[in-house]
Amino acid sequence: MNPAIEAAFAVALQRISYPGWAPDFFTPRAVVGPEFDTLEVLPEPGHLSQVQQQLLAALRAIKPKFKLAVLTMMCNDAPYIAEFVAHYRVMGAERIFVYTNDNSDSTYEVLRWFEANGLVTVLPMVTAGKIHIQRKNYHHALYLLPELRLFEWVAVVDSDEFLLPDARYGHNLSAMLDAAPADVEAILFPWHWRLGPVSFEPVPGLLAERYVHANQWDHAKSVIRLRHVRSLHQLHYPYFDGVFQLHDTVFDRVVGDADRADRRCTGAGGWTEHFWGKSFAEYVVKKQRGDAPAALDSAKSFAREYKTYFEWSQACTPDNYAPWPEAVLAGTKAWLARFADRPGYAALQAKWEADFAAHVAATRGDSEMRRMFAEMQALIPR
Asked: DSSP string of 298-332?
């Protein structure tokens, strides 16, 4: 193992071995630097170093004090952060841990504002080249973010994924988790691919108001208990030390082995609402993020072609009409109003809106983008 990582494990072990160790949610974090890049690949359980085994045992001995945290990553997401935070506050999340890197907009400033207001913990990250960023970040969180262990449950989601439990749980994630049997270690929420008007320009309003149609998609994201997790390598659901312990949103066991378990779960009790494409201008910003120098290695890249926006779009029909629950939408707006009342928020909002307008203006002024949009609309499945 990388000596720098081994040393970091030893420091973490020393810290949490002290009986009075204090969680640190608020102090700005040191950059998760290139020395941690090799965390993208964790050794198999039989090949853990002694300090890694000791650290893992000490982490698992931490007793949760809170119900629910969210673990995510953000890059050039400034226009959507407030809605994301508000939604997960409505869901009952008590803290959101955000890894962030390579921002060219106001994302870092927005996240620092939410951190200063006690809602987010920001973990800035830098790499030395093209690596699997998600795996690096999630494994850093698994071993070197002991604060995460203070939460009984952790929702592991992307910045454009909003978990939404069914009405049987009052559309509330915390209430759903209260109903989970004691042997449930991970709950898989299948994807709802959120659909809306295919447009060149962004459509005004919250994501929850803009995209009121949805189709099921062959992926899922999970809410997990960390107590037996050995790896988050798969990203969509965890690997455990022992038996396969995944359940769906009505708490039924997902049978079979771990290969593509996300295709074998029901959304009867809730969905991962995935706001993927948005407008074409927003997709272009997202694609630029995927093409960034610190993006995934070329063999496993999530970088997309422009035509993917059109090929993965789908028509909105009466059959896939799935409006956001009114109570959840009202709760989100109430949290947004609270944010707006706090010092510094209005100026920050004006900045991220100006930054995003500049991004869109650059796309709008690109005649090639306009031509491409007009030509590729025919690719949208009907």
From this structure: GGG-----HHHHHHT-----GGGB-PPPHHHHHHH
| Structure-block tokens of residue 240 | 């455990």
SS3 230: strand
Closest CA to 37 of 237, 221, 262, 297: 297
Kind of pairing between the strands at 246-247 and 186-195: parallel
Which residue is associated with the tokens 């989100």?
A: 332
Please name the residue that has the structure tokens 């920001």: 122
The SS3 of residue 268 is coil
Query: CA nearest 263: which of 275, 250, 246, 251?
Result: 246
Phi, psi values for residue 305, rounded to 5°: -80, 160
Inter-residue contact 96 to 83 (CB < 8 Å): no
Say if pTM beats, i.e. exceeds, 0.85.
yes
276's tokens: 């993927």
> Within 10 A of 21 (CB to CB), how many other CB atoms are there?
13
Least Cα distance to 296 among 140, 161, 129 occurs for 129
Distance linking the first and last C-alpha atoms of the chain: 51
Domain residue spans of the chain: 25-43+66-379
| Cβ atoms 86, 114 nearer than 8 A | no
Residues with Cβ within 8 Å of 318's Cβ and at least 6 positions away in sequence, in order, are: none
Name the residue among 192, 153, 200, 158 with its Cα closest to residue 173: 153
- Least confident range from 110-119, 241-250, 265-274, 316-325: namely 241-250
- The three state secondary structure string of 249-308 is CCCCECCCCCCCHHHCCCCCCEEEEECCCCCHHHHHHHHHHHCCCCCCCHHHCCCCCHHH
Please give the sequence-ordered ranges of beta strands (E in DSSP) within the chain, or none if there are none: 66-74, 95-100, 120-124, 151-156, 161-165, 186-195, 213-224, 229-231, 239-240, 246-247, 270-274
3-state SS class at 112: helix
Identify the sign of the CA torsion 100, 106, 109, 114. Answer: negative
169 — phi, psi (to 5°)?
-105, 15
Q: Is 115 helix (H, G, I), strand (E, B) or coil?
A: helix
Q: Which of 163-172, 312-321, 372-381 has the lowest mean pLDDT?
A: 372-381
Q: Can you tell me the mean pLDDT for 56-81? A: 95
Task: Note whether 229 and 238 are within 8 A (CB).
Answer: yes
Nearest to 154 by CA among 216, 231, 96: 96
